[in-house]
Each structure stands twice: as C-alpha cells, then as structure tokens.
Automatic annotation (TrEMBL):
Protein name in UniProt: Methyltransferase domain-containing protein
Keyword terms, alphabetized: Methyltransferase, Transferase
GO biological process entries: methylation
Pfam families: Methyltransf_23 (PF13489)
Domain of life: Bacteria
MF-aspect GO terms: methyltransferase activity
SUPFAM superfamilies associated with the record: S-adenosyl-L-methionine-dependent methyltransferases
Length: 238
C-alpha cells in the first residue's frame, strides 16, 4: 500500500473489497474518518460549492487532485474537454476504471505540458500547497498553466473557528506554525499509516492578498454553510 492511502481505498471500493473508511489524524482535531463512498459521489450529492465550480467550468479543463474522478466524470458527461491529474497512482487507476478519458499521474508542480481555460482545485485542493510560504510558488506555476482568459476555481475554509478565543477577542494559536491554517495530517487505512504531510486551509482575505501579489484578480463566488467558500482567480491584464 505504501503511502498511497487514498489510492488503495478507492481501488478497494471499485474492486468491492471496501470494508472500512480512511481514518485521519491531525494537529487541530480529534480522530476523524473520510467515508470512501463519498469520494465516488455524483453531482447531486456534491456540496453547493463544488456544484457551482462545475457549473462555471468551461473550455479545456484540468481537474487537479482529481481523486476518484467524480468531478471529471461529470464534466466529461457534459462534453467538456477535461483532464484528471493526481499524484496518487491509485487515484489515476480508479479514474481510468471509472471511464475518465484523459488522465495524468503527476504532481501539479511537475506538470507543464499544456495550458487550460479552467483549472479546478476542489475539496480544498489548494491544501496541496502545504504552507503559506509555498503559496506564491504554486500560484505562479498555476498561472503558467492558464490561457490568457482562463480561470482558476478553488474552494477552501477559514478554520479560525477551531481555535480557542481569548478574552480580548483574539485566538490562541499553537506554536510552531507561521499561519493558523497550516495543519499536519496522517491517514490510516487497513492497518497502514501514511507519513505525516502538511495541508493548508486558506481564509479568503489571505488568498485574495496572495492572488493579487502574484498577478491574479480574486473574486469570492459563493460562501458555504461552514466557513468555506469558492473563489475564482483570473489573470490581471495590463
């Protein structure tokens, strides 16, 4: 299984050997689970933010961190030219088994083969950045993958609500992190445990500032019910 927890779980589900869910452990919350069947949901079962992002998708689309390919399959069914990209070998195999026509097994920073009208980073896909210090590098790379009139659609969450509030209205943030949205995760599945990996949750104002500094316009499209939001980034033109 190695560290490809998601890939192993998705392939088990497709091969009808699914018996348990993915367990997550993080530096900000107690043990939680990711139900494997949820990774295979259809459009009707997706949150509003994801539905809106898919509705806005147009032209040639790159689905970054595609997982089991649920977003790609929906767009493909709408005759949209979509490519599913994931660093998980198992995820890409799951996409192929489900009928996704175009797939790429790669990290996003290592991929530069084409440009797109729409880049999708859903299910807090921007989390792959890991830390706030890496955000500029990722935004500049994503910028290079966009056509002149292209768009980057991403959702994330402001997790400040998870921290204790002080009497003066501030928040107590654990030491060791430059930004409160930086979280370390490990995952467990069928007795195997992944290495710890960093994940980033971005509040909208921080995203907007970083976007502008790196040549993007940033628009808040819709807010979810639990501190989450969907944003659209487009290239600033002179």
């Amino acid at each position: 299984m190695g560290s490809d927890i998601f890939g192993a779980a998705m392939l088990d589900y497709l091969n009808k050997t699914y018996t348990e869910d993915i367990v997550t452990l993080s530096t900000i919350s107690e043990e939680d689970t990711i139900p494997v069947p949820y990774l295979f949901r259809d459009y009707a079962a997706m949150p509003l933010l994801e539905q809106k992002a898919l509705d806005l998708s147009k032209g040639k689309v790159l689905d970054i961190g595609c997982g089991a390919g649920s977003h790609s399959l929906y767009l493909q069914g709408k005759s949209i030219d979509v490519t599913a990209l994931d660093a998980s070998k198992g995820a890409i195999e799951a996409c192929k088994q489900r009928g996704v026509d175009k797939t790429i097994h790669s990290t996003i920073l290592e991929y530069n083969a084409a440009t797109y009208d729409t880049l999708l980073l859903l299910m807090n896909g921007i989390g792959i950045v890991g830390s706030l210090n890496n955000l500029a590098e990722y935004l500049l790379h994503l910028k290079s993958l966009l056509k002149p009139n292209g768009q980057l659609l991403l959702d994330s969450s402001d997790i400040i609500y998870m921290f204790d509030e002080d009497e003066d209205g501030g928040y107590w943030i654990p030491p060791g992190k430059d930004y409160y949205g930086e979280v370390d995760f490990t995952m467990q599945y069928k007795g195997q445990k992944s290495d710890s990996f960093p994940w980033l949750y971005l509040d909208y104002n921080t995203l907007q500032r970083a976007a502008i500094l790196n040549g993007f316009n940033c628009e808040l499209i819709v807010e979810g019910e639990h501190y989450d939001y969907l944003a659209k980034l487009t290239l600033i033109t002179q």
